[in-house]
Amino acid sequence: MFTINVFYPFDALVGGLFIDRLGRKTFMASGLFIQAIMGTIVGATIDTQVLKPVLFALTKSTGDPLRARGYFIIIGILGGILILLYIPNMTHESVDTFDAEFRQML
User: Fold this and answer.
1) Calpha distance 81→74 (Å, rounded)
2) Is the separation of the CB atoms in 80 and 32 below 8 Å?
3) Please, which of 43, 83, 87, 97 could form a disulfide with 29 given CB 3.0 to 4.6 Å?
4) CB–CB of 40/72 below 8 Å?
5) Mean of the per-residue pLDDT values of the chain
6) How many CA atoms, within 13 angstroms, populate the side-chain half-sphere of residue 97?
7) Spatial contact of 59 and 68, defined as CB atoms under 8 Å apart
8) What percentage of the chain reaches a pLDDT higher than 70?
9) Are 75 and 36 in contact (CB under 8 A)?
10) How far is CA 95 from CA 21, 72, 92, 99, 105, in A?
């Protein structure tokens, strides 16, 4: 668990510095890209606890542990592309408008 907690202060700092420059949608997609690559290279506690059976099954079916880890990168990149294609780019004003419309629905 310590491995994951080490990244939190750095993520908060980077998020605070770049969210306004990149926009929410681009920042979320780039974060997913970086997470897919870093998670595969560095690994993390969650990787060894949760994804171990998935990685074992992929390694068994492909015969190559490096190729099996590559699938995680591909899934992360596809997720980032889906974010870029389907998540609307919301500015501060559009978030306020969305909140007001949601409150009217309630």
Assistant:
1) 10
2) yes
3) 83
4) yes
5) 79
6) 5
7) yes
8) 83
9) yes
10) 17, 32, 5, 6, 15
The residue assigned the tokens 């969650």 is 46
Helix, strand, coil percentages, rounded to 5, for the chain? 85, 0, 15
Looking at the whole model, is its pTM more than 0.85? no
User: What are the distances in angstroms from CA 5 to CA 31, 45, 98?
Assistant: 16, 10, 33
Measured CA to CA, the distance from residue 69 to residue 100 in angstroms comes to 44
Tell me the residue length of the chain: 106
36 within 8 A of 76, measured Cβ to Cβ: yes
pLDDT tens string 21-60: 888 888 888 888 887 777 677 665 555 666 778 878 888 9
Q: What is the mean pLDDT of residues 58-75?
A: 84
Instruction: Over range 94-106, report the average pLDDT.
Output: 85
The yes-or-no verdict on residue 95 having pLDDT over 80 is no
Q: What is the sign of the dihedral through the CA atoms of 51, 74, 79 and 92? A: positive
